């Protein structure tokens, strides 16, 4: 579909006058083309004279009209966006004031509907902004394609990125909306944990979320959980900046232990919050436990002054000094440490130091992101976090002094970050963390979130593992499975060293590292994110090449930029297609403005699936049903499905072979049967048994093929459904029993007919030649069929 028609199909009727005039701009580009072909464009020499009168052309060129209208449309979108945002802020302020005083449930329900409307309007505004934003990109691209002698896209896109409606952060609306929902629900706060040593036992599941779906997911979650702002001074809108410095040794021992999921594998990191230099940090240890044994992974942490981190890793900061500092910090708050807290702090402090010292750990890679947390304050029963603007950075510069050489435990912020020292993850990462007591189930709205299609479960995804595998490809012995996904390939290639460059970056990459981040989220000055973004932008915003030969050379250079860990083509597609997003049933939200129901097939089981019982049972109340998000599938699962199919096929072929042999045997004995006389059953006993067994073999073949294809489809789509068939085996077992009973009855009837014929004739006639074969072959088939079950 042409983008002009796409805009027309997505226009909100009441906002139709505020969209980009895509058709008008396109017509002006055609007029510019015509002027260039006819020579109507005014010629402007590079020199002028003060005494020579120039030709006075009062007619504006189409090129000038194009830029005027383009700038007018940009300003129109900006004013309309600001107007709607201010209206939403005023409405939310008024609703929050009413919610604080309101006690009547009916009026609370009315406020809830109004809050829902504002949330839907905000999502509609985001779609409006994205349609216009992409429209400007498209029309500028068309301009440069039709007018290659006057390119403007590179300049104007940089100008577009600086517009308030592009750079603006309107997440304060979601915070205000979250507060409104919290007041209407009557949320109560838990008790804050300020222990020096803390431990967390909970189950965590991680998902990828497309950037364009982030606001939709936030809106759904905040209707049930409030945005949790631990310290409002370090928050930007609804999110806070989090830095985590992960430690490892030269052999990447911790990386490989976490990747292999060895029991007891640990990850050590130093974490601090906010964009300011760290003052007090958390030294955290994550320990992997085997979930199939009923164990839960544990995260433990203790606080440490940032200026003591290096001394701690060198063994100069002793446990006694650390306890003294902790007691002094507690005293300043008017509290004291209990003996239990001292013991927990001492044990964790000692164990972490032993791990750092024995494994020779050092700062390796940093993860940096903006985190939005949804949680009832200090109640960790259900906690959802959404990490955006995720990047991983080498903690030790490639061309500069390491942290150890400079006596630091984190990278010097003044050093530039080159392209090969940073990787930007293309998706947001959502974590669902549950700390449920025995007998508790997850809330129904959590299940609805998982079933919406906006989330893609990535089993055991780790920022530390992804960053290490991407930034240290020469040092890792194994890589996580998700690196073969097509959606993360471009981001990994952007950090790959060029064969021509080698491991060292270009000198010019560092010279521009202090620039601004065009088109990205705003960050603090001097932070690694800002420096890295500028370096990445410098790599993207190279001057346009106009000659075909130069373009071919540039394409060749791009082809040579291959990450050592990636193959020629991606082999995974974890992110589902947009058409598979069904949206939220209760809230009425849907993907791309479509209906919230399913599409094309709607996920309803077919006739044979219902007959064979291949339909999962409905989820019980409380949302404890099966998840429909993709799950991790081991390769052995495919082979197990094939082995099951071949086992059924083997039995079907056995029955078919016996039936075919009986029919062939019967064809050769027809003449003998007629000469010997006898009853009809005796003469056609072989054919009857074959006709009983042959359809049974065909039915087994059809059943095996159908179930194999059904299972293979669910495995390929990574659906978490029942793979067991609860009806088919019982039905086939019953059919085999019926066939064996029928064969037994026919044989008995034939036997009695032989006895009757013997009594009537006075002599014992010889049985039909096929009788003995029928009994022998039929008995073997029956024994073999019964053995399959």
From TrEMBL:
<dbReference type="Pfam" id="PF02656">
    <property type="entry name" value="DUF202"/>
</dbReference>
<keyword id="KW-0472">Membrane</keyword>
<dbReference type="GO" id="GO:0005774">
    <property type="term" value="C:vacuolar membrane"/>
</dbReference>
<dbReference type="Pfam" id="PF09359">
    <property type="entry name" value="VTC"/>
</dbReference>
<feature type="domain" description="SPX">
    <location>
        <begin position="1"/>
        <end position="157"/>
    </location>
</feature>
<dbReference type="InterPro" id="IPR018966">
    <property type="entry name" value="VTC_domain"/>
</dbReference>
<feature type="transmembrane region" description="Helical">
    <location>
        <begin position="645"/>
        <end position="668"/>
    </location>
</feature>
<dbReference type="Pfam" id="PF03105">
    <property type="entry name" value="SPX"/>
</dbReference>
<feature type="transmembrane region" description="Helical">
    <location>
        <begin position="688"/>
        <end position="709"/>
    </location>
</feature>
<protein>
    <recommendedName>
        <fullName>SPX domain-containing protein</fullName>
    </recommendedName>
</protein>
<feature type="coiled-coil region">
    <location>
        <begin position="82"/>
        <end position="114"/>
    </location>
</feature>
<dbReference type="InterPro" id="IPR004331">
    <property type="entry name" value="SPX_dom"/>
</dbReference>
<dbReference type="InterPro" id="IPR051572">
    <property type="entry name" value="VTC_Complex_Subunit"/>
</dbReference>
<keyword id="KW-1133">Transmembrane helix</keyword>
<dbReference type="InterPro" id="IPR003807">
    <property type="entry name" value="DUF202"/>
</dbReference>
<feature type="transmembrane region" description="Helical">
    <location>
        <begin position="769"/>
        <end position="788"/>
    </location>
</feature>
<feature type="region of interest" description="Disordered">
    <location>
        <begin position="493"/>
        <end position="556"/>
    </location>
</feature>
<keyword id="KW-0175">Coiled coil</keyword>
<dbReference type="InterPro" id="IPR042267">
    <property type="entry name" value="VTC_sf"/>
</dbReference>
<keyword id="KW-0812">Transmembrane</keyword>
<feature type="transmembrane region" description="Helical">
    <location>
        <begin position="730"/>
        <end position="749"/>
    </location>
</feature>
<keyword id="KW-0926">Vacuole</keyword>
<dbReference type="GO" id="GO:0006799">
    <property type="term" value="P:polyphosphate biosynthetic process"/>
</dbReference>
